[in-house]
Amino acid sequence: MQAQPLSLPAVPEPTYGERLKDKVVIITGAAQGIGEAIVACFQAQQARLVIADIQAEKVEKVAAHWRERGAEIYAQPVDITSNEQWQSLVNLAIARFGRVDVLVNCAGVNVFRDPLQMSDEDWRRCFAIDLDGAWFGCRAVLPHMIAQGIGNIINIASTHSSHIIPGCFPYPVAKHGLLGLTRALGIEYAPKGIRVNAIAPGYIETQLNVDYWNGFADPHAERQRAFDLHPPKRIGQPVEVAMTALFLATDEAPFINATCLMIDGGRSVMYHD
Length: 273
Ligand SMILES: NC(=O)c1ccc[n+]([C@@H]2O[C@H](COP(=O)([O-])OP(=O)(O)OC[C@H]3O[C@@H](n4cnc5c(N)ncnc54)[C@H](O)[C@@H]3O)[C@@H](O)[C@H]2O)c1
Known about the structure:
This protein is an alpha/beta fold. It folds into two domains: 24-201 and 237-263, NAD(P)-binding Rossmann-like Domain (Rossmann fold), CATH 3.40.50.720; 207-235, no CATH class. Helix content is 42%, strand content 14%. The chain contains eight helices and seven strands. The protein has helices at 33-43, 56-67, 83-97, 120-148, 171-189, 207-214, 219-228, 238-249; strands at 24-28, 48-53, 73-77, 102-105, 151-156, 194-201, 260-263. Strands 3-2-1-4-5-6-7 form a seven-stranded parallel sheet, with helices on both faces. The longest helix is centred in the middle third of the chain and has 29 residues, at 120-148. The protein is globular, with a radius of gyration of 18 Å. It binds nicotinamide-adenine-dinucleotide. Nicotinamide-adenine-dinucleotide is lined by residues 28-29, 31-35, 53-55, 78-81, 106-109, 129, 133, 156, 158, 201, 203-204, 206-209.
């Protein structure tokens, strides 16, 4: 039996406003899940958006949806493991809007393997997407941000960036690296007016986790187990991550740099779970 759609406590819809008015934002992993929620949240605050994903049709559909509702938004199919494709994505933002204020590195994959059974290909795929891809993005936007004298990078890391759950190798190794990248670049470029931060979501209701539950004999029981692990007795929703990304992307967080905001309902603070 497949896991049923989740029924979770309501989280407020992002309200319409001008918190990102005139800011040019690039978002990867925008075709679904957390990335798609960030797009929805940012367009509601009048960001000018360039969104990317390896799923070409799906990311264009997301852009078309918001464009029809008045958003300034362009989509481009991009494999974030390619430097050339990053360059062309940033070129699109510059050609359309003349600058890049915010980069949200959200694209990522779960690679959960037994360490000694894992192929070299799986190791490389995990690092290529979960770490190299974000670095290539930073490297592509930083020259523009330095020239502007202002910029803001948000890396979607994970609770796996600082905690280890058995059976998830090598994903946490790459996500620890992403946190290191965030700190290193945050320190390196702070004098140039650039902030680099990470967000560490815990268990968030996306397709990625629905697929994971459906891999168990009893997906319902596995979903319930996930709920029970968390102090609020539920897991998170993509919009909750998006609202945190929004806060970091605005000018409301000017002294927050080289850090990581955890969004896990407090789970990682508990001694036992
Ligand atoms: N869902 C969670 O519980 C959770 C928890 C912690 C961290 N995260 C992180 O949040 C981010 C988004 O996760 P999600 O749950 O929305 O997953 P998701 O699978 O729904 O979305 C990930 C997106 O990244 C895209 N993508 C994958 N490889 C790509 C590539 N090479 N180039 C461009 N795009 C690519 C996919 O097509 C997809 O649209 C990931 O970095 C993930 O590691 C998720």
